[in-house]
């Protein structure tokens, strides 16, 4: 008892010394006055009511030091530098929001999973790990948490249905395992001004016989890349394509971030193909992974996947700046904003915030010379398949985190994703998570300066962009295999076919180890028997599925383009 009294006294003294005793509505009102203002989907009365809920719910945890972690992007920098301080001032819970590399976040998470040591009280990690969290059962089910142990710290106004990415963070058992914090898609980016230039349009139609416009398929993308490469515009030689190819971990994201799906790898299905997903991993009717190689009914080394790698290699060699081959993700990202790139199929909308800063690709009135649009699809793609990747960095609570620390961290997670805060946060980072935010009038007003971002996110097309799904049984172990295998193709050490053969074989080794260990129970891998491509294609077709598809002899299909302005109009019908 004496120890408890001394501890309580020490906590009170610490709170007084740090100013935490003064946390409350005055601090909340100051935050609303200076930071939020009119940028919220809630009126001022509702904002204050939400802040009062946080103040009351946080009282048992005042004075605690809580550590959370995320990758370093603009949205999380805003949370770490601005919102964490506001939360501390308002609630008295001290938040340290660390910013580290994406790979380091996964490494810390992996270490906590393996050791049981509580390294961080909450993680913002990509929803790509949903299959991992579901199968290993080391992350709390937020569905269960909100209804039971965490009910007293769950905002009654959280409105889970307002989160546009909740399908990405829900497992086959119907449970929500992660709460989206930021999202961005991987879209097609192009120079709208160059595409609308009369001479460019005339020259393009004379050469190719159809209109210059947003490419609907890879065949048209290839023609446009060829057309612009070497062309002189405003006294500068330009390129028709941009990418990166250095054998580096970031090369893995380039492909696990749904490049194969754009080509037509895998099966139909939203948010992910079933039974074969965009990684080429097949699951059975119990969601157990049964293989990655064509020999087991998978598609990682099938004709669609090989075609996707060959096109990646051909385009970078023929149409991108020579230095692109030796660049990493972070080095290549700023290049389109420098003004010499006509289009890029694989462009993260997370770059939008930097792309709207004054420079060669912005008009004097602040409107962009570029636009973003849905990515074109490859020759193997069919209606009903996903068409690209959407990153969804999402809050995850590990079971190894003590309940009181998890509760305090959960309050912070809800604060930075709350309706009070989300519109302002979205204006800073442009990484949308709530439908109510997307519908806010301030984004209708800002849309002309964001090059199609708002139009895309308000459109039905958005549904075809999704993160890695639940077929992937251990994301940390499998994701690291991709950059090594595809790096061999990028460097010329292996053909595209040999690289993908190697990749699927390595993925299956991991799955076989998981099966032998039995660590994932009755939802872990159960490897299938081996047969040839024709066998598995016939089996798929007989069940109404696609993958693995047979090779299409003429992979240069009829090119198709669409006028950008007509495309945007069609979304509002």
Describe this structure in words.
- The structure is a single chain.
- By secondary structure, the chain is α+β, with helices and mostly antiparallel strands.
- The chain is 44% helix and 10% strand.
- Strand 6 and strand 7 (236-237) form a beta hairpin.
- Helix 2 (25-36) packs across helix 3 and helix 4 (74-91) packs antiparallel against helix 17 (419-429).
- The longest helix has 22 residues, at 496-517.
- It is globular and about 70 Å long.
- Residues 1-21 have low confidence and may be disordered.
Main pleated sheet: 7 strands, mixed
Averaged pLDDT = 94
Q: How many strands?
A: 13
As a percent range, the share of helical residues equals 40-55%
Quick synopsis:
The chain has 24 helices and 13 strands.
Q: Could you outline the blueprint of secondary structure elements for this entry?
A:
Elements: H1 2-18, H2 25-36, H3 44-58, E1 65-71, H4 74-91, E2 94-100, H5 102-115, E3 122-126, H6 130-136, H7 142-147, E4 179-190, H8 192-195, H9 198-208, E5 214-215, H10 218-228, E6 232-233, E7 236-237, H11 249-256, H12 259-263, E8 282-283, E9 289-291, H13 303-319, H14 329-332, E10 343-348, H15 352-355, E11 371-373, E12 390-396, H16 403-416, H17 419-429, H18 435-438, H19 441-446, H20 453-457, H21 475-491, H22 496-517, H23 533-542, E13 561-562, H24 564-571
Parallel strand pairs: 1-2, 1-3
Antiparallel strand pairs: 3-12, 4-10, 4-11, 4-12, 5-13, 6-7, 8-9
Helix pairs in contact: 2-3, 4-17, 11-21, 21-22
């Amino acid at each position: 008892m004496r120890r408890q009294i001394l501890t309580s006294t020490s906590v009170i003294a610490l709170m007084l010394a740090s100013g935490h005793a003064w946390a409350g509505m005055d601090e909340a009102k100051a935050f609303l006055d200076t930071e939020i203002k009119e940028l919220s989907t809630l009126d001022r009365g509702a904002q204050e009511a939400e802040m009062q809920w946080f103040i009351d719910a946080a009282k048992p945890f005042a004075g605690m030091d809580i550590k959370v972690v995320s990758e370093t992007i603009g949205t999380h920098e805003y949370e770490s530098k601005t919102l964490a301080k506001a939360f501390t001032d308002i609630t008295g819970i001290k938040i340290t929001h660390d910013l580290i590399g994406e790979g380091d976040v996964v490494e810390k998470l992996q270490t906590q999973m393996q050791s049981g040591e509580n390294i961080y009280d909450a993680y913002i990690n990509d929803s790509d790990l949903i299959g991992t969290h579901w199968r290993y059962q080391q992350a709390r089910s937020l569905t269960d948490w909100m209804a039971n142990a965490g009910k007293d710290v769950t905002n009654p106004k959280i409105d889970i249905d307002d989160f546009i990415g909740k399908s990405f963070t829900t497992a086959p058992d119907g449970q929500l395992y992660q709460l989206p914090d930021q999202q961005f898609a991987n879209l097609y980016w192009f120079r709208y001004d160059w595409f609308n230039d009369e001479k460019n349009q005339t020259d393009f139609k004379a050469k190719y016989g159809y209109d210059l416009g947003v490419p609907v398929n890879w065949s048209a993308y290839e023609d446009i890349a060829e057309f612009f490469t070497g062309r002189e515009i405003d006294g500068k030689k330009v390129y028709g394509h941009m990418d990166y190819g250095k054998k580096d971990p970031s090369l893995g994201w380039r492909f696990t971030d749904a490049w194969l799906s754009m080509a037509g790898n895998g099966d139909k299905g939203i948010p992910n193909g079933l039974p074969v997903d965009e990684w080429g991993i097949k699951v059975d009717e119990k969601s157990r992974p049964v293989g990655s190689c064509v020999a087991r009914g998978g598609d990682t080394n099938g004709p669609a996947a090989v075609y996707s790698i060959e096109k990646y290699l051909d385009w970078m060699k023929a149409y991108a700046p020579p230095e692109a081959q030796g660049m990493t993700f972070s080095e290549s990202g700023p290049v389109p904003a420098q003004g010499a790139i006509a289009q890029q199929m694989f462009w993260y909308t997370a770059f939008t915030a930097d792309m709207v800063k004054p420079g060669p690709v912005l008009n004097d009135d602040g409107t962009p010379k570029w636009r973003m649009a849905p990515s074109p699809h490859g020759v193997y793609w069919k209606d009903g398949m996903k068409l690209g990747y959407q990153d969804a960095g999402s809050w995850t609570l590990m079971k190894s985190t003590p309940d009181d620390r998890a509760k305090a961290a959960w309050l912070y997670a809800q604060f930075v994703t709350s309706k009070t805060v989300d519109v302002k946060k979205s204006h800073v980072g442009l990484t949308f998570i709530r439908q109510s935010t997307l519908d806010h009038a301030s984004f209708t007003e800002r849309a002309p300066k964001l090059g199609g971002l708002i139009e895309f996110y308000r459109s039905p097309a958005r549904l075809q962009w999704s993160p890695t799904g639940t077929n992937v049984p251990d994301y940390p172990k499998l994701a690291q295999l991709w950059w090594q295998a595809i790096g061999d193709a990028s460097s010329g050490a292996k053909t595209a076919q040999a690289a993908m053969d190697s990749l699927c074989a390595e993925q299956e080794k991991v799955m076989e180890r998981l099966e032998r260990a039995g660590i994932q129970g009755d939802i872990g891998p159960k490897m299938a028997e081996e047969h040839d491509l024709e066998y598995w294609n016939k089996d798929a077709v007989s069940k109404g599925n696609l993958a693995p598809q047979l090779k299409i002899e003429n992979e240069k299909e009829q090119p198709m383009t669409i006028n950008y302005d007509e495309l945007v109009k069609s979304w509002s019908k």
